Amino acid sequence: AVSQADCYVSLWLPTATCERSRTKTVRNSDNPVWNETFYFRIQSQVKNVLELTVYDEDFATPDDHLLCALFDTAKLPLDKTVILYFKPAADAKEELEVEFKLEVAPGPHEMIASNGVLVCRELCCLEVEVAEKTKQKSKKELSLTVKGSFEGTQDIVLGPNGVVSPSCPTEFHYIKYAEPTLDVMLPKKRRYHPWSCRYSTETGSPVVMLNSLPMGRKTTIAEEKRFDLNVTAKPCNCSCHQDLDMRFGFNLCSEEMAFLEKRKRYVASALKNVFHLPHDLQDQEVPVVAIITTGGGLKSMTGLYGSLMGLKKLNLLDCVTYISGLSGTTWTMANLYRDAYWSQKDLDSHIGEAQKQATKCKMGCFSMDRMKYYNKQLCQRKEEGYRTSFIDLWGLMIEYLLNDGKDPHKLSEQQEALCDGQNPLPIYVSVCVRDSYSTNDFKEWVEFTPYEVGLLKYGAFVRTEHFGSEFFMGRLLKKLPESRICYLQGMWSSIFSVNLLQIWGLSHSSEDFWKRWTQDRIDEVDEEPVLPTRPHELRTRMYTPPGPLSSALRGALTDRFSVAQHHNFLKGYQLHNSYMENEHFCRWKDTVLDSRPNQLMQNPDQLGMIDAGFFINTSSAPLLRPQREVDVIIYLSYTTGSHTSSLDKACKYYSEQKIPFPTISLTDEDKKNLKECYIFQDSDLPGCPIVIFLPLVNDTFQEYKAPGVKRCCSEMEGGQLDLTSSCSPYCMFSVRYTDENYCKLLNLSEYNILNNSQMIMQALQTAMQRRRQKMC
User: Keyword set for this entry (predicted)?
Assistant: First the structure.
């Protein structure tokens, strides 16, 4: 006879406890009844989603998944018993009956801090000390575990002659109201049994409920012949944002605000001189102009030098407030910002140094001495506390490609180039990704400035010198030395973070064919009876896990060769109960996990970051934060592929996100034969910037060596550049140019700026007029 199911229910509420609970198994029954009660203490300001999963227990194979319901406990009325029925589908015969009751927990209110998206819970610190009573020559080890804490598991070694390692008290940082426990594995004891003439080994494993400990008072939890084990629980203040070691909000940081005030003076003066204005501009009249770029390796690095040279010659560089980059343009930016006053000087020396590096032989990159250097640097980085990857090696190779020796510079040191507002503020762009998810399904924008590094969607920022250090619940618990900028360049311009799904996307217009293999199956259902809903509550969902074949194929399609790994500064945070209604979160809400808070905040220890070009080849996202109030975007496209592709993708993306961005209207003829400059604007859309689109195309430059100056016959060769063919010397993977090819590319990018100066100035005038109209 075929046996019936052996069912049990697993309950997971990670915002209340890190432990999964489960019922007993009811064997050989098609109508199991458990009648078990579970208690969870929840924080009402946190989004608490209970996952109820029914399994059929198997001994020989993994347990079969029968049903998984994701239920938002915010739907429950207070002090009322509610019985709900969960079905995997509306017409399904199987259903799970669950009784709920929500009550107010006695005791003091928990002190929390929140920015409307993230919640910082009340934190405690447990100190564990070993007081040795007798000195012995043997060595003993204790293993201590606080699940869900920052530290996890730590060991204490009792050495010979009373030496205890570590000598200072062992600390655990944990969420106070998450049912924390201390599990202690005491040293093994050997006992002699005279009746059997044998020894047996015994281990002691006391478990301490940490919330039962008196705050601030030393308590002995284990007394052994050799030592006593003492613990002390202490509170960690986190009741306001000032108690945290990271910035918790969506406004600009105070340093950037101060910079903007200083930069306005440069911009106002430059605009007055360029347009010969009869009076000084008021602060409200000064438009915010930003340069954004696309990536493209050495081509984009060289192209940006030429474009900046053109803006410098037009006296427009001082009109720019921000410059953002990704991929190869970050190489230009990082080199320029070593000089604190680069934009106030002639750029010839910087361009000459860049030419020297772009045209040098790169074979020394693989020499034995260089390999030893790479190994030494990676070992040092690992000793400092970083998790190294191939991306770090790539960063060291970039260091060699762009420099004569070791580059000691760090991103935070670029603050010196901003102290008087003398240069535009640089913003470097990356995206955060997750394992087993394609970049289209999961990506989160990350911005890097000399002041701070942050994830736009969460309003969470750490000081730049602290990026890579270890945080827990907003607290800096382990400070690491700041990374040299070459390691960041490896991440910002990584060509090794591609996966098969992205390769498919390069040759096909859509990934839809693979979505059934790479996306989780989540279906919205109505519980019975249907509970009244409020806007911030999540619909009840049924989750169907992928089968073995789907999981294997998904892994093969989404696995990336290498991803930059940095300690996750969001570790420990939970989501606010109304996070889905927060306007700042919704602005960047575009991943498949956004409505699954348990998975979204199931924070890995490491953040995986890749070149933003693997999503949309543009550095525009941070500049469209409404707090930056950008009026004009100078869009410099150096991409090797279609110039309009990244622009169209950006326009589509921002439209879907309801972020103000002008409609891109280009005819098929324009797309086939691009001009040097286009202006896109939408005056009817509030907050929409004017976009000056400058693709790196070789149009009139073929016949003109300078605006209005035609080439003679002997100069025609200087205007011939192969930018698009597969044999082009400017392909993305080219790491060395000849002097001739470098100069041609530099001159072309400079020429395209100079030749379209009137259109650029027209856009700036329009922006000033809009500013004046707002003042009326």
Answer: Calcium, Cytoplasm, Hydrolase, Lipid degradation, Lipid metabolism, Membrane, Metal-binding
pLDDT digits (tens, 9 = 90+) for 298-334: 999 999 999 999 999 999 999 999 999 999 999 999 9
H/E element, 84: strand 81-86
pLDDT in tens, 596-626: 999 999 878 899 999 998 899 999 999 999 9
Q: Which of 611, 619, 620, 646 is catalytic?
A: 611
For the whole prediction, is pTM greater than 0.90?
Answer: yes
Choose the catalytic residue: 300, 327, 497, 637: 327
Catalytic residue check, 699: no
For residue 571, how many other CB atoms are within 10 A of its CB? 20
**pLDDT higher than threshold 90 for residue 41:** yes
DSSP output for 115-144 = -SSEEE--EEEEEEEEEE-S--SS-EEEEE
Interior angle at CA 377, CA 373 and CA 378, nearest 5 = 115
Domains annotated on the chain, with CATH: 1-110+521-545 (2.60.40.150), 123-237 (2.60.40.150), 248-498+560-775 (3.40.1090.10)
Q: Percent of the chain, pLDDT > 70? A: 91
Q: What is the DSSP string of 18-74?
A: SSPEE---B-S-SS------------TTB--EEEEEEEE--SSSPPEEEEEEEEEGG
Q: Are 73 and 84 in contact (CB under 8 A)?
A: no
Q: Active-site residue 30, yes or no? A: no
